[in-house]
Amino acid sequence: MSHIAVTDQPDESKHPHSFITKYIWSQDHKVIAIQYAITAIFVGLVALLLSALMRLQLGFPDRFSFIDPSAYLQFVTMHGMIMVIYLLTALLLGGFGNYLIPLMIGARDMVFPYLNMLSYWTYLLSVVLLLASFFVVGGPTGAGWTLYPPQAILPGTPGADGGIVLMLLSLAIFIVAFTMGGLNYVTTILQARSKGMTLMRMPLTIWGIFIATILGLLAFPALLVSAIMMLLDKVAGTSFFMPALLSLGEQLDYSGGSPILFQHLFWFFGHPEVYIVALPAFGMVSDVLATHARKNIFGYRMMVWAIVAIGGLSFVVWAHHMYVSGMNPYFGFFFATTTLIIAVPTALKVYNWVLTLWRGNIHLTTPMLFAIGFIFTFVHGGLTGLFLGNVVVDLPLSDTYFVVAHFHMVMGVSPIMVLFAAIYHWFPKATGRFLHEGWGKFHFWATFLGTYAVYLPMHYLGFLGVPRRYFAMAGTDFIPESAQTLNASITVSAIIVGVVQLVFIVNLIWSVRHGKAAGNNPWQATTLEWQTEHTPPGHGNWGKTVPVVYRWAYDYSVPGVKEDFIPQNVPNEQLQFTDKQRYEESQQ
Amino acid sequence: MAITIILVLLVLGSIAFHFISPWWFTPIASNWQSIDTTIEITFWVTGFVFVAVNLFLAYAVFRYRFNKDRKADYQPENKKLETWLTLFTTIGIVAMLAPGLYVWGQFVDVPADATEVEAVGQQWHWSFRLPGADGKLGEVDSRLVSDQNPFGINSADPAGQDDILIQRNELVLPLDKPVKVLLRSKDVLHNFAVPQFRVKMDLVPGMVTYLWFTPTREGSFDIMCEELCGVAHFAMRGKVRVTAETEYQQWLAAQPTFAQSQSRYAGDTSQGQALFQVCAACHGAVGEGNSQLNAPALAGQSRWYLKRQLQHYQQGIRGSSEGDVYGAQMVAMANMLRDERNLANVLSFIDSLPPPQPKARQGDLQRGRSLYRNCSYCHGSQAQGIYAMNAPALTSLDGAYLRRQLNYFKQGIRGSHKSDFYGAQMQLMAQSLHGEQDSAAVIAYIASLSADAAISDDATLRSAP
Amino acid sequence: MSVLSRLREKPWLAQPAGMDPALQRARRRWPEHTALMFMLAISTVLFFLFTITFLGRTQLPDFQPLAGMPWQPLTNSVMLWLNTLWLALSGLAMQLSLRQSRRLHKKVGPWLVLATLLVGFFLAGQWLVWQQLLAQGYGLRTNPANSYFYLFTAVHGVHVMAGVIALLRVWWHSRRQPLKLSRSLQLCTTYWHFLLLLWLVLFALLTRSADTYNTLAAMCGF
């Protein structure tokens, strides 16, 4: 397998020349990253549309004739699955991971560029299969994104024939794609760092991506295992997860399997998945905050330890999704304890972000606004997680809209705030131009306030006890009329937020050609990706030699130094001091 | 600047929303006050952190906004501060976790004097089983489930003979007595949740799960299925009625046991024929129905359904609501069949009649076929009706009658009585038909099914787009 | 330096010019090796999870083990022992080919052909075991134990086939570069030993009696 990252000299003969090798069958990590990002954003828009459709039904029931109970469940399911797997995982790791890893650690490319390319095309195949399920007889599966058997593969659930089979196949292929990409990310981080880039000098973005990828590599097999076994149950009639049961009044051939086993497997993947999304977001937001506040990240070591600790703990909390699943109730004691322990490192991260801003010199640029929006929404989502993690508090709240509101806050809104922050922050590197600042600010305000107007009230529907995944709420004694009014207002806010994203898309497309020129290091950042010779960087990233790293990633506003930032590749000898003594004191 | 103001406003607004929100926990009706207390503690701890962190954030953003004459501080870490923060967070976590685990201990540990009740879930109905005089529930096996034995009780087990079977969506419980609800599912995952009781648990096919509570307030409460169980998940509702002990005993005495349910009088066709003459005046000599008189066909309809409807008329569950003119007529007629044996005889006679063939109807068959997919899960792909799903046959009914009933469901004329659970479910399902055209299409499709029932194929229909 | 002490470094402290330990360290780079280690970890997790579900499934009443009683098909597992032998010998051939390739310019080809052939025997042998089980009426869906037997052997078989493809690729691409070949062969050989180890664990797991399963499951807390 050919790779150029390991040698220090760029291999001229490897540079692609035709359009096809440069932009389609490209092995350049930056092109692959953009391919990943565009595909992920495209399916993300499909999922956004689906969420708007299901919000229409909830807000204005009985008004839209194309939404029947089956269609509603299909919207819910596909919205969830696409957002969690095909958008967030793919965009954060496939998109940002691919783009940033080699640039931030000073490598010329991923260590296995061919494998990297294969990873993207396999991902695309999984997306095609996923979308194909919309066009098979019976439509896509409507089993909820958790795909719980037995109902997922039985009639009575929409898409129980073709839809679920395509879904499982698509997931299996996605996992293969992710594994190819993930092997590349971890190996590149471990083996291709440039000279002087010790682990503790890596920016937190890389730490987040690194640990998240390890989580992914070890957690996705659980999903693969459950997908294979469920596929066999569906297609070959085995009974891994299927007990003896009836379906719509008829006895079926299955016997003896355990549906709970599937749930354990699913959440053994599903919980780390939360952190597969969260950790890269944690990392990227740290870098955005430090850069735009002109201050080092507060408690860098604590931040790294917290990422590692959260990563480790995320494998022993999975059953907090299953407190009311009928599993042995004594498990509740263990999993409630581990779950609440994980809150400690997470809380420390929040404190450190806020303390990074404290005594900073804060530029309220669009990326910074999104980062602040992230802190606010993440605090909200994290705290509501303490309700659900504490086993007995979960009893009245699980399977209600409180859960929906919580995970959208913590896994939907806050990572997406980071994604936007990251796009506004790194877009100038990828294209050489800024995104339009005014439209960016409008985008921020509408998204931030709009999503809060959607999800804050939704928690209260959960307190009331309104169950999730209901096509219609009518006909109960305990849900008052006013809840319907609230649902309508949530729908209106959600649709406004959805439409505003089009402004962002237009901004993206427009700015590629017409945005303000940015130069090599527009934010005056310290990390290596901003120190390239060209913007956007060419194939091989660096000019004649790869950069040598002399310092950590957060030398902002170092006392006694003339500039308020020192790039990682600047040696001490080249520093210009205003007050050398103060500088030396600060280094004690 | 704007961001500071907005952050402060959001914090204040969230607090204000919390206090003025009319959407809050339903008034509790069980012993689980302690769960509410734990939630309150959680609210205080998390609320404090929410306000403190976000106000600090807002202040920091305001205080240290960009100033070209100032340089940011340089502070890689502060061990002391970080230690204190860790400590405070840990204390907060313990303050929430300790009471939580204590209360969970109570939930796991069922009191010895709790009486057992079994709640059986199936797509999309509830039924219940009580242990009967011997205080023991009989053995069950899902392989034994059939139309004659819907609970799948093993008839060889003597403990099962006196089990009391409640084949409807309503459970009655005595006030202030702890109950352990054993949960069993016949088909897929379900969840037994009553918001006012605070507790819930999944039903898992292949195993028995449980939860317990003590009802502390009289009243009727909704049982919601809160685990996605298929298309009609949202329509899988039940009721728990909590009453005083005396009323509970009366109710209990009226419920059949397993042994009784197995030995019902079968009915006599010839005696039924004589009784049927009264019905024939409107419904026709061979029960073929008469659309001039607004009387539906009876021949071809399932016996169990006719029986339930007659009983509903007798009990004022059907035909009593305003606007149901024809139903009101039927109430008087149904009252003539109050005798259990007479009822069985008439039903036996109707059973022996040949099913009529309703006329084909105008309507968009393609659309009808796709709309009917949601109906087919319960009513069957040939609209033949499925007893296990509590769904009557539709094929023998003429279009005018079907349309009228659909409208009744949509307008709340039928299915609004609090004991008409199946009607209430139809009200919800009828929501998926929007407007006259949808109804016409679905009715035309149903009519086309009875015409060529033999031709069309079950498998393709269930998965029709 | 251990991972823990590395994680305690204070990276913000200035390093005196020319004394930065980070710049002194010479780095041994072998990305393929790192990637292989991760791959083995992933496969281990995969089989570990299958095994856990398997042990959970053994505790449900309809599970009938394939071995333990004289009439059960795997009680007398000569065929499986024979297959194990093929796989072990193939590993040995790989080890020998690796030794040859380290003494550069020695013939490696014959040993690789032998290793591939032996692995082919293994796969064919597994296929025969399947046929035999089917002929005796132990179909995929007749019992969960059978389902797991087919599942485990199939997933292991896929791993073996992937190994063969990788080996052929390595040989084709570096047949004229002895140094590169020897490095790649080392990785292949490691993978071969992993396959054998994995198979031994699966073999042991699939041919236990009900009592052993009960003990194992009890240890896992089922």
Automatic annotation (TrEMBL), chain A:
Highest taxon of the lineage: Bacteria
Topology versus the membrane: Multi-pass membrane protein
Main location: membrane
Record keyword Iron present: yes
Keyword Heme belongs to the record: yes
Listed transmembrane segments: 31-56, 76-101, 121-143, 163-186, 206-232, 274-290, 302-324, 330-348, 369-389, 401-424, 444-466, 486-510
Gene3D superfamilies: Cytochrome c oxidase-like, subunit I domain
Pfam families assigned to the protein according to its UniProt record, in alphabetical order: COX1
Record keywords: Electron transport, Heme, Iron, Membrane, Metal-binding, Respiratory chain, Transmembrane, Transmembrane helix, Transport
Record-annotated Cytochrome oxidase subunit I profile domain positions: 19-550
PROSITE patterns linked: COX1, COX1_CUB
Subcellular location: Membrane
Family: Belongs to the heme-copper respiratory oxidase family.
Identification of the protein by name: Cbb3-type cytochrome c oxidase subunit I
From TrEMBL, chain B:
Protein name per its UniProtKB record: cytochrome-c oxidase
InterPro entries recorded: CcO_II, CcO_II-like_C, Copper_CuA, Cupredoxin, Cyt_c-like_dom, Cyt_c-like_dom_sf, Cyt_c_oxidase_su2_TM_sf
Catalytic activity: 4 Fe(II)-[cytochrome c] + O2 + 8 H(+)(in) = 4 Fe(III)-[cytochrome c] + 2 H2O + 4 H(+)(out)
Pfam families associated with the record: COX2, Cytochrom_C
Annotated source species: Rheinheimera maricola
Record keywords, A-Z: Copper, Electron transport, Heme, Iron, Membrane, Metal-binding, Translocase, Transmembrane, Transmembrane helix, Transport
Residues of the Cytochrome oxidase subunit II copper A binding domain: 112-254
Annotated Cytochrome c domain residues: 267-450
Family statement drawn from the similarity comment of this UniProt entry: Belongs to the cytochrome c oxidase subunit 2 family.
Cell compartments where the protein resides: Membrane
Keyword Repressor: no
Topological relation to the membrane, as annotated: Multi-pass membrane protein
EC number: 7.1.1.9
DNA repair in keyword set: no
Membrane spanning residue stretches: 41-62, 83-104
SUPFAM superfamilies, per database record: Cupredoxins, Cytochrome c, Cytochrome c oxidase subunit II-like, transmembrane region
UniProtKB/TrEMBL annotation, chain C:
Cellular localization per UniProt: Cell membrane; Membrane
Keywords, comma-separated and alphabetical: Membrane, Transmembrane, Transmembrane helix
Stored InterPro entries: Cyt_c/ubiquinol_Oxase_su3, Cyt_c_oxidase-like_su3, Cyt_c_oxidase_su3-like_sf, Cyt_c_oxidase_su3_a-hlx
SUPFAM superfamilies: Cytochrome c oxidase subunit III-like
Transmembrane spans: 35-58, 78-96, 108-129, 149-172, 184-206
Broad class of where this protein is predominantly found: membrane
Ranges where the Heme-copper oxidase subunit III family profile domain occurs: 35-211
Protein topology in the membrane: Multi-pass membrane protein
Family affiliation: Belongs to the cytochrome c oxidase subunit 3 family.
Database matches in PANTHER family: CYTOCHROME C OXIDASE, CYTOCHROME C OXIDASE SUBUNIT III
Record's protein name: Cytochrome c oxidase subunit 3
Organism: Rheinheimera maricola
